[in-house]
Design a protein that fits this description.
The protein contains 5 helices and 4 strands. The protein has one domain (8-124). It is of the alpha+beta class and 142 residues long. A hairpin with a 7-residue loop joins strand 3 (63-66) and strand 4.
């Protein structure tokens, strides 16, 4: 059974300004509370990466894990993660998922360019974001 934040988990680079912006965006538009969050650098995030044999030394992608609290949990990375999240956020954000019609290799290539330049684009932070009291229950590493 899903916890109070929902059945899905987003793992993000906790010191990346762009990634922190993504988390703030999802918190704002996810009115149904479908997503939990953890930074890739946290114990909770590292445990999830190990669970799916994902490379714990590479922090250049965010990871969306569908139904993360169940045995049927499925991880998505890069463009697949972005499409997964946009589909669940509903309209108008669901329209981003139309990009799934494009070849995954091309989408991941664009994702990789942004990921390589994410600190230049949005800066690097000293610390992970601090959840508000209202959103604290949705962060596994809070």
């Amino acid at each position: 059974m899903a916890g109070p934040g929902g059945p899905h988990l987003l793992l993000y680079d906790g010191v990346c300004g762009l990634c922190n912006g993504l988390v703030q965006f999802v918190l704002q538009v996810d009115r149904r509370g479908l997503f939990h969050f953890a930074s890739l650098q946290s114990a909770a995030g590292l445990a999830q990466l190990k669970r799916f044999n994902l490379n714990v030394s590479e922090l250049d992608t965010f990871v969306a894990i569908a139904d993360y609290q169940t045995p049927a949990a499925t991880p998505f990375t890069k463009a697949s993660a972005a499409v997964f999240v946009s589909k669940r956020l509903g309209w108008p954000w669901k329209m981003v998922s139309l990009a799934a019609w494009l070849p995954l290799g091309a989408l991941n290539a664009v994702y990789d360019v942004i990921a390589r330049n994410r600190y230049w684009i949005a800066g690097k932070r000293e610390h992970c974001i601090m959840p508000t009291p209202e959103t604290r229950a949705r962060f596994l590493d809070a």
